[in-house]
Design a protein that fits this description.
The complex is a heterodimer of chains A (384) and B (458).
Chain A: E1 3-12, H1 16-27, E2 32-35, E3 51-52, H2 62-72, H3 75-79, E4 90-94, H4 97-111, E5 118-121, H5 122-128, E6 138-142, E7 146-147, H6 150-163, E8 167-169, E9 174-179, E10 184-188, E11 191-200, H7 206-211, E12 220-222, E13 224-231, E14 239-242, E15 248-251, E16 256-263, E17 265-267, E18 272-274, H8 277-290, E19 298-304, E20 307-309, E21 316-319, E22 326-330, H9 340-352
Parallel strand pairs in A: 1-2, 1-11, 2-8, 4-14, 11-22
Antiparallel strand pairs in A: 3-7, 4-6, 5-6, 9-10, 10-11, 12-20, 13-16, 13-19, 14-15, 15-16, 17-18, 21-22
Helix pairs in contact in A: 1-6, 1-9, 2-9
Chain B: E1 11-14, H1 18-29, E2 35-37, H2 59-63, H3 67-80, E3 85-87, E4 90-96, E5 99-104, E6 107-112, E7 115-118, E8 122-124, E9 137-138, H4 140-150, E10 157-162, H5 166-176, E11 180-186, H6 191-195, H7 197-200, H8 204-219, E12 230-234, E13 241-245, E14 251-255, E15 258-261, E16 265-267, H9 270-274, E17 279-282, E18 287-290, E19 303-305, H10 315-332, H11 339-362, H12 368-372, E20 378-380, E21 385-386, H13 387-396, H14 402-409, H15 422-432, E22 452-453
Parallel strand pairs in B: 1-2, 1-7, 2-3, 7-19, 9-15, 10-11, 10-15
Antiparallel strand pairs in B: 4-5, 5-6, 8-16, 12-13, 13-14, 17-18, 20-21
Helix pairs in contact in B: 1-3, 1-10, 4-5, 5-8, 10-11, 13-15
The chains are: A alpha+beta (384), B alpha/beta (458).
Domain FAD dependent oxidoreductase (chain A): 8-350
GO cellular component, one term (chain A): cytoplasm
Organism (chain A): Siculibacillus lacustris
Chain lengths: 384, 458
C-alpha cells in the first residue's frame, strides 16, 4: 500500500539547505515533508571540505554568505550539538603580481558588501605562516571566516526538523512530480505526497527535477577529490587557499590536515563520486610544495562526493518561472556548505512571504533560458 | 605492427599467500605471465610468513606439522622463475575500474589489468575487553608473527585468549618455543565443539592436529578453559595480570606480562570493495563478504576472489581455491582446462566447506564479551573512541547505521580505517539498538587501503 502524506511544503533533497528550510518552515507553523533519496546531510552537504568561507566567493553570493555567516555563530546552540565551528580565519595566498592585484581588487569590491579583508605583505604572511614552503608575494586575510565539521551539520538540522514536527523521509527517492493546479503531487518510493509548495533542493539531481516542470538547466556533476592525513601536531592555524584555487588546506583541532586535490571519478547514473589515485597524488604533490612539513604525514583516507555545478559556478535559487509554488535551490557548484543555513531561511521566506530580503535575482533559473543545454562545464580548479 | 587483440591478457594476482601462490602457479602453467603483488618482502602470506633474509630458522620449528606445505609454497616462485612477475614489498592501495594503484620502494605506480585475482588474506578479529589497549596485549596473529618472523615471544609469561582453532595452535607453538603459559582461555563454550565433532571429522587430519595441540598443552599443565564469560587486563604501563570469569561466574586472576587475544579472523576485503564487488552479510561469521561463486568469480566479471580475503577457510582451502579460481579465469579466457582436475578440486573444496561449517558452529561468535565491556573502554584507539560513546551516539543522535556512526563519532576514521574497530563497532551498534549487524550496514570503503606517505609523491 502506498502511504499518502498531505503537507504545506514538500522538499526534495535532504541536504543542509533543505533541512534548514524544514526547520524554518516549522517555525512558521507549516507542515513539511523532506524526501531524501539516501541519508540527510550525507551528500555534498556532508562530504565537503568544511570551509565556512566568505572570501573569494563570487560577489553575487556575498550578501548571502554575509547573512549566513551571522547564523553560524549560533548554529551549535540552535542545533543542540557541537558542529565544531571555529573562526580560524581564511587566508588566500598570492603567488604572482597578478594574483596580488586580484586580491586587492577583490578586497575593495568585498568592502561594498561589508566583508572586511586585510592585505598581508610577504613578510607578514611568512611570519603568520612560517611553515610555508613556497615564496608568496602576499595574501588576503578574512578574519571572520572559519571551518566546521560538515558531517554533523546536515544530520543535526534533520534531527531538529524532525523534533519540530517535520516529516523527514530518508531512503525515499522521488520518482515523479507534477503540478495539479492546487499544488503538487510527488511520487516517491512507497509514498505519495501532496503539497501546496514544492522546494527543489535536489543537488546534482536538481536539474532533472526542474526539467519535469519545463525548465531545462545545464547542471553538470562535480566531485571534488578530498584527502585527509593522520593527526599531526597542530600548526595550520588558518584555513588556507591560493589564488587559482588549486591548493586548499585546513587542520582540524583533532590534528588531521584536510586538503583538496582536483576532481574525482563519477558514476553519473548512480550519482556518486570517488577519488582517483592520479588526482590524489597530484593534490599531495601540490600541497606538499606549499606545506613541506606534510612530508612527515600519511594520507589515511581520500574521498569524494557529488554536487551539481552550474556553468557560471553560482547556484540556482528562487521561484520557478513556469510553475507557481515551485522554488529551486540547487547547483551550489561545490561551495554550498557555508550558505546552507541562510538558504534554509530564504526558502522559508519565499514560501511564506513570496519574497526575501536577500538579493537572489542573480540566481534566477531564467538566466539559462536562452542557453543550449550545455554538456560539461569546464572543471576549473576551485576551492570547495 | 603489434596486434593488440592477440596480446596476452594482463593478469594480476594480489597477495602471495597460499591462495595467490597457487593461482600464479596455475596461470604460469597455462603459459601466462601473471603479475603477483605482495606487501611482504617474501612470499608465504601471514600463515606461512618467512623470517627476514639472514634470520632463517628450520621450517619445522616455525610451521610445525605444516612445514612441508610452507616450504613447498616458499619455493614455488623460485621454481617458476621469470614466468611470474613477482613484485614484493608492494602495497596495492587502490583499485578503480581496471587500474590498480601501487606503492613500492618509495614510489607510486599503476597497473592496468584485464583480470585480477584478489587473494588478500585475513587478519585477526579484534573485540574490545577491559584493558585490551594495555601495552603487552597482542592479537594471537601478532603473537605468531613475533615467533615466526622475529623469533621472540610477546612476553615471558603469557596468557592466551581466543575463539577459534588458532588458540590451541598458538599455545602449542609458545610452549614449544619455551615460553611460560599463564592460561589458555577460550571464550566460546565446550559443548558445541563436542556436538559438532562429527562434522569436524570431514578433515580428519586437521581435527587430529587440533586435538594433538590441545593434548600437548593440557599435558603441559595448561588445559584450555572454555566458556570464559568476561576478561579484564590489569596493569598500567604494562600487563600485570589477566582476570577472567569462568562459565559459572567465578572470577580468576593469573599474573602475566603479556596477553595474546583475538576472536577468530576477518577477511581483508577492501580491494574487493573498491573494485565495486557486491557484498553480502555472512550470518555465521558475522561479517560482510564479497559475493563469490563456488568457482571463484565475484559479482564483477573481471575480478576473481580466492582464499581468506573473501571468506575465512584457512590455508588448505586457500591453496585449493587459488588453483581453482585460476582455472576458472583460464576457462573464462577460453583456454583449455583439465576437467578432471577441476572436478577433484571441487570435491576437496566441498569437503572443506562441510568441515568449515562444523568449525564455525563449534566456535560461535562471542557476543557476550561485548555486552560485558564497560562504557569507558576504548573501541577505537586511533581516534580514542569509547564503547560508551558509540552506545550513546546510537541512542541520542539516531546513528542507526555504520556510516552515520562514523560521521558522528569518527569511528573508522583513524589510521586503520575500521579494519580493526569496524566489526566490533557494528556489533556494539547492533546490540545497542537491539538489532542485527546485517541491519546496521558496513563502513564505506575509501582508498588508500593502508596509509600512504605524502613524501613519496615527490
Amino acid at each position: 500500500m502506498v502511504e499518502r502524506l498531505d503537507v504545506d511544503v514538500a522538499i526534495v533533497g535532504g541536504g543542509t539547505a533543505a533541512c534548514a528550510a524544514a526547520v524554518a518552515l516549522r517555525g512558521h507553523g507549516l507542515t513539511v515533508a523532506v524526501l531524501e533519496k539516501r541519508r540527510c546531510g550525507a551528500g555534498a552537504s556532508g562530504v565537503n571540505f568544511g570551509g565556512v568561507r566568505q572570501q573569494g566567493r563570487d560577489l553575487r553570493e556575498l550578501p548571502l554568505a554575509r547573512r549566513s555567516r551571522t547564523l553560524w555563530d549560533g548554529l551549535s546552540a540552535l542545533l543542540g550539538e557541537d558542529v565544531e565551528f571555529e573562526v580560524s580565519g581564511h587566508i588566500k595566498l598570492a603567488r604572482s603580481e597578478a594574483d596580488l592585484a586580484d586580491l586587492e581588487a577583490y578586497r575593495l569590491a568585498a568592502q561594498e558588501y561589508g566583508l572586511e579583508l586585510t592585505m598581508l605583505g610577504a613578510n607578514a604572511v611568512h611570519a603568520e605562516l612560517p611553515w610555508l614552503g613556497e615564496k608568496v608575494l602576499g595574501a588576503s586575510l578574512s578574519p571572520t571566516d572559519g571551518q566546521a565539521n560538515p558531517r554533523v551539520v546536515g544530520p543535526a538540522y534533520a534531527r531538529l526538523a524532525r523534533r519540530l514536527g517535520a516529516e523527514i523521509r530518508e531512503f525515499t527517492p522521488v520518482t515523479g512530480a507534477v503540478a495539479t493546479g492546487r499544488g503538487f503531487e510527488i511520487e516517491a518510493q512507497g509514498l505519495t505526497v501532496t503539497a501546496r509548495h514544492l522546494i527543489n533542493a535536489a543537488g546534482a539531481g536538481g536539474g532533472l527535477l526542474a526539467t519535469a516542470f519545463g525548465e531545462t538547466v545545464p547542471v553538470t556533476p562535480l566531485s571534488p577529490n578530498m584527502l585527509v592525513t593522520e593527526p599531526l601536531p597542530y600548526f595550520i592555524s588558518r584555513s588556507i587557499g591560493v589564488c587559482g584555487g588549486d591548493v586548499y588546506i585546513r587542520q582540524t583541532r583533532r590534528g588531521n590536515a584536510i586538503f583538496g586535490g582536483g576532481h574525482g571519478w563519477q558514476d553519473v547514473e548512480l550519482g556518486f563520486g570517488r577519488p582517483t589515485a592520479e588526482q590524489s597524488l597530484d593534490g599531495m604533490r601540490r600541497t606538499l610544495q606549499l606545506v613541506p612539513s606534510l612530508a612527515q604525514a600519511n594520507v589515511i583516507r581520500t574521498w569524494s562526493g557529488f554536487d551539481g555545478q552550474m556553468p557560471d559556478h553560482i547556484p540556482v535559487i528562487g521561484p520557478s518561472a513556469t510553475t507557481p509554488g515551485l522554488i529551486h535551490a540547487f547547483g551550489f557548484s561545490g561551495h554550498g556548505f557555508q550558505l546552507g543555513p541562510v538558504i534554509g531561511l530564504i526558502l522559508a521566506e519565499l514560501v511564506t512571504d513570496g519574497r526575501t530580503p536577500s538579493p537572489i535575482e542573480p540566481f534566477a533559473i531564467t538566466r539559462f533560458r536562452d542557453m543550449p543545454t550545455a554538456t560539461s562545464a569546464e572543471a576549473a580548479h576551485t576551492e570547495h | 605492427m603489434l596486434d593488440v587483440a592477440k596480446r596476452d591478457p594482463a593478469i594480476v594476482v594480489v597477495g602471495a599467500g597460499p591462495a595467490g601462490l597457487r593461482a600464479v602457479e596455475t596461470l604460469a602453467a597455462a603459459g601466462l605471465r601473471p603479475i603477483l603483488i605482495d606487501e611482504a618482502p617474501r612470499p608465504g602470506g601471514q600463515i606461512y610468513r618467512q623470517p627476514p633474509v639472514g634470520a632463517e630458522r628450520p621450517a619445522r620449528d616455525l610451521y610445525g606439522f605444516e612445514a612441508p606445505k610452507a616450504v613447498a609454497l616458499h619455493r614455488l616462485l623460485d621454481r617458476l622463475g621469470d614466468r611470474v612477475d613477482h613484485r614484493p614489498d608492494t602495497l596495492a592501495w587502490s583499485l578503480l575500474e581496471n587500474r590498480l594503484d601501487l606503492l613500492s620502494a618509495g614510489s607510486f605506480d599503476q597497473i592496468d589489468f584485464d583480470r585480477v585475482i584478489l587473494a588478500t588474506g585475513a587478519m585477526d578479529r579484534v573485540l574490545p575487553f577491559a584493558g585490551w589497549t594495555t601495552p603487552g596485549v597482542f592479537t594471537l596473529g601478532a603473537a605468531q608473527i613475533a615467533l615466526k618472523a622475529q623469533g621472540v615471544a610477546i612476553g615471558r609469561r603469557v596468557a592466551l585468549v581466543g575463539a577459534g582453532p588458532l588458540l590451541p595452535l598458538v599455545a602449542h607453538q609458545y610452549l614449544k618455543a619455551g615460553a611460560e603459559i599463564a592460561a589458555v582461555l577460550d571464550v566460546t563454550p565446550l559443548a558445541p565443539k563436542i556436538r559438532h565433532g562429527l562434522g569436524l571429522a570431514w578433515q580428519p587430519a586437521t581435527l587430529l592436529k587440533g586435538l594433538w595441540y590441545t593434548a600437548h598443552i593440557t599435558l603441559a599443565g595448561h588445559p584450555i578453559r572454555f566458556g570464559v564469560k568476561s576478561l579484564r587486563v590489569e596493569g598500567g604501563a604494562r600487563v600485570e595480570a589477566l582476570v577472567w570469569t569462568d562459565g559459572r561466574g567465578r572470577e580468576h586472576r593469573v599474573a602475566c606480562d603479556a596477553v595474546g587475544a583475538s576472536f577468530g579472523l576477518r577477511s581483508e576485503a577492501q580491494l574487493a570493495d573498491l573494485a565495486g564487488c557486491r557484498f553480502t552479510f555472512d550470518a555465521v561469521t558475522r561479517q560482510w563478504q564479497p559475493e563469490r561463486d563456488p568457482e571463484g568469480r565475484s559479482s564483477r566479471a573481471d575480478v576473481y576472489l580466492a582464499g581468506d580475503g573473501a571468506a575465512i577457510g584457512g590455508a588448505d582451502v586457500a591453496e585449493l581455491a587459488g588453483e581453482r579460481t585460476a582455472l576458472t579465469l583460464l576457462a573464462d579466457l577460453g583456454r583449455p582446462v583439465d576437467a578432471s582436475r577441476v572436478a577433484l578440486l571441487d570435491r576437496r573444496l566441498a569437503r572443506q566447506r562441510r568441515f568449515r561449517a562444523a568449525l564455525e558452529a563449534a566456535y560461535p561468535f562471542p557476543g557476550h564479551l561485548l555486552d560485558a565491556v564497560p562504557d569507558d573502554e576504548m573501541v577505537c584507539r586511533c581516534e580514542g573512541i569509547t564503547v560508551g560513546r558509540l552506545r550513546d551516539t546510537a541512542k541520542v543522535r539516531e546513528a542507526h547505521e555504520m556510516n552515520r556512526l562514523k560521521a558522528f563519532t569518527r569511528i573508522g576514521m583513524g589510521r586503520c580505517q575500521g579494519r580493526v574497530c569496524g566489526q566490533a563497532a557494528a556489533e556494539i551498534l547492533a546490540r545497542t539498538l537491539a538489532s542485527e549487524p546485517a541491519a546496521v550496514g558496513r563502513l564505506r570503503g575509501n582508498p588508500p587501503v593502508k596509509p600512504i606517505p605524502v613524501k613519496e609523491t615527490l
